[in-house]
Amino acid sequence: MSTTTVAVAPLTTHDAEALVEAARSAAEAAGVTVAVTVLDAGGHLLAFRRDDRAVLIAGETSTRKAYTALQLNAPTADLVDAVQPGGLFHTLPTALDRPLLFIAGGVPVHRDGRLIGAIGVGGGAPDQDHGFANAAVEALARR
């Protein structure tokens, strides 16, 4: 029996910078100042940018959203209900050493069906942050 392993290109710093720029451009077009974090598949920081006027906590929330999306391989917007009392992940936010954040704005990044990283956006309303992150992932896919 023969097996074939197909290599998937990892998320590069060039990709990460393109994600940051696309998210930032989407936020700027909406008049929102944000912070954007991009992590590789191992959870390592590849790119980060916080707009000068973005609230300081946006940097922390963008990073936690990216980490959460990466670890659970799901947009954080899809996980909000799971941490409510009685939800599947109700105790998960306090069960780990590294804090997760179940607020919309974190989106996993896939290439050829494989998880290669995640982007997190913080600073706008949760739905806005989710939209900016999605716009960035879509822009990367078109490249």
TrEMBL record:
It holds the Pfam family HbpS-like. It comes from the Bacteria. PANTHER family: PROTEIN GLCG (PTHR34309:SF1), SLR1406 PROTEIN (PTHR34309). This is Heme-binding protein. The lineage of its organism: Bacteria, Bacillati, Actinomycetota, Actinomycetes, Kitasatosporales.
